[in-house]
Every structure is written in C-alpha cells, then in structure tokens.
Design a protein that fits this description.
alpha+beta, about 15% strand, 7 strands, three-stranded antiparallel β-sheet, 10 helices, elongated
Length: about 260
C-alpha cells in the first residue's frame, strides 16, 4: 500500500483489545526492559526503552503500512507484558542483552544472543574523522572498548552530534539519509576542514582524559538557535553520552590499555 493511502478498514489494535487502554495509560515513564509473553506464557520478545510508556504505546496499532510481517505476527501473539525497571537506558540495554542471551526469544532477531566484541573505532584522514565499529580493530584506527552490543549505538550518537558540530548552519533534517534513523554506513566520514584539531583534542578528552571536558565542548559547539524539536533531540543524545561516561566500567577502560593500532 502506498504511503499515505487511506485504509478501507482501520488497522487492528490486538494489544489494546487484549490488555485494555488503561494498561497503556498506566505504563510508567521510566527506563527499563519489557518482556512480551504469548498465550502459553513463553517470553517471545524482549526490548528496552528510555521511556517505557512511549515505547510501548508504539505497539498499539498493527499498521501493515508501517510494520513488517515479523512485527505484525508478534503483536498478534502477545497476551501479557511485564517490565523490569532500570536506572537509565544504559542499564536497560545491558539487562536486555542479558535476557536475550538467556531466553533466546523467538521474535528477537536470530544471532543477537551471541555477544561479540565490538570496538568503537575512529581515525583522522586528511581533514576528516571517520568512525566505525569493528570486532578486530584495524591498523591505523584508534579504538575504545570492547563495548559489545552498545558500540553501534554509541557511534550513532557521536556521529549525529559531531555532524552538527561540523555543519553548524544545518539542522537534523539535513543529516545524510538514514542517519537520524540510526542507519549509518560501515564508516561514517565527517569533514571538519581546518577545525579538525579541536575535534581530535575533544575525542582524546572523551576516551583518554576527562569526559566532562568533552561534553562541555559539545554543549558549547551545539549552543546555537535551533527549533524546539532539535534542541530536545540533541539534549537526549547528550544525556545518553553523559550516562555512558558515568558508568564505572568506562572509567576503568579510559585508564586501561587504549592505543593507536
């Protein structure tokens, strides 16, 4: 069905029918993990959210124009949803990964339960910085980790914010195609021109020195007049970085063995 075309019949709401509208209104606005059960009591899907209410409300409508077949089958099979609350999204991500490895839910994508080492990697080429995620960091790349399943997410946040730093007169709606939806190429390249040295120093602060200096630098660079929705999106990404650097494990890694390979 073409995007925007009207339905002859309204899309189904299987979870609303089974759980009731009141269930969705009462979901706490907290970070956590949600576990979806089928009629046999089996956990068939595990997911995480910064805001459980906002995330679960997206499941209310089984819209075939927006959702894939796998997603639609999931909504038709779920009869109960449970929550595990977490202090922040970082903790929720770790708890989600643990549950997926242990439970292997049928609707979580195949292969996600095998934890692989994944490093955030970057290098400076000419007047640009390139960021990637590598299981085995290649020669010439600086690396941080291993961060496991969180490495791609951390790269997405960094790339979005650094792109805005590199393009101060442009907005989030002008990001390269897919970047706002977390779809990045294997190597994301950001052109800084003569402004590359401050970026190099900022990344050194982030991973080998004082993350606070890095976060303050980002905040200053992004302190431009922007629409409200952009300010909200930037604040969320900055908050996620702040939570990441506040984790004790990250402090240990910053003082451990990190080098240019």
């Amino acid at each position: 069905m073409a995007s925007g075309q009207q339905f002859l019949f309204a899309p189904e709401k299987p979870l609303v029918q089974r759980l009731g509208k009141k269930f969705f209104r009462k979901i706490p606005r907290r970070a956590g993990v949600y576990k979806m059960h089928d009629a046999q009591g089996q956990i068939v899907y595990v997911g995480k959210a910064r805001d459980l209410r906002q995330r679960l409300r997206s499941y209310r409508v089984a819209n075939p124009e927006r959702l894939g077949r796998r997603h639609l089958r999931l909504l038709q099979s779920v009869t109960r949803i449970e929550f595990d609350f977490c202090p922040n999204e970082m903790a929720a991500l770790k708890h989600e990964a643990k549950l997926i490895r242990e439970l292997k839910p049928k609707f979580n994508r195949a292969g996600v339960w095998q934890g692989k080492p994944q490093f955030l990697t970057w290098r400076f080429v000419d007047q640009a910085v390139e960021l990637g995620v590598q299981e085995t960091p290649l020669t010439g790349w600086e690396r941080f980790g291993s961060l496991g399943a969180y490495a791609p997410r951390l790269r997405v946040v960094l790339v979005r914010l650094l792109w805005l730093v590199a393009n101060p007169t442009r907005g989030l709606h002008q990001l390269p195609h897919g970047w706002m939806q977390n779809r990045l190429p294997a190597t994301a390249r950001l052109e800084f021109g003569p402004r590359l040295n401050p970026v190099r120093a900022a990344l050194e602060h982030a991973f080998w020195g004082s993350p606070t200096l890095f976060l303050n630098w980002l905040a200053r660079e992004l302190n431009a007049a922007r629409p409200a929705f952009e300010r909200t999106a930037i604040a969320k990404d900055l908050e996620e970085l702040q939570e990441f650097f506040a984790q004790p494990k990250q402090a240990e890694q910053r003082h451990g063995q990190m080098a240019l390979l």
